[in-house]
Design goal:
By secondary structure, this protein is mainly alpha-helical. The chain has ten helices and four strands; from the N terminus they run H-H-E-H-H-H-E-H-E-E-H-H-H-H. It has one domain: Rhomboid-like fold, CATH 1.20.1540.
Amino acid sequence: MSQIVVILIVANVLASLKGFNDVSFFNRYKFQVSSILNGDKVRMFTSGFLHADWIHLGFNMYALYLFGRIVSASFGSVYFLLIYFGSLLAGSMYSLFVHKREGYYSAVGASGAVTGIVFSAILVYPEMELIMFPIPLPLPGYVFAVGYLLYSIYGMKNQSDNIGHAAHIGGAIGGYALTLLLSPVIVRTDTILVLVIGGIIGALLLFGDKILKR
């Protein structure tokens, strides 16, 4: 496994452990709309290394372990870090945009960055098989990607759970855009997948107010 993936997993575990045991540390570095709008922009990155609990941490790190290997092997460590942190920032930015009127809104987790890595891996290997809960059958990567985007949009519209769907969508956008920027040949080899995902993202960005209106 790539050393850079191991380093990121260790960094997430150590920061999350600190947050589990130090409430002031957790509150100081979590994503919080009011604090960010008041100039504390570092939270847009630091929140990506904190997690709510062991399950949250374990799920994200397992996904990073699985898909990080694919992306790091395909692009190398430098570009892998660009995709990872670019997706983390994109997830935070989209969350800030969606929740900008909710000063109390807060969130933690590497989900935005990890989702970007997952989408990057799918663009590289769209035929890989993945399982999307609660469907117990393996799905091709391209089906998973489209289904995950639609599910996240649905979750963000209903806001009936405690999942940061906006960060997931923002991370997916970051991973999608950066992967195509770094490997534009994908546009030619998997044109339909690129267009379908791009169409969903474009519709959300252009007509998000109407799509997400409850």
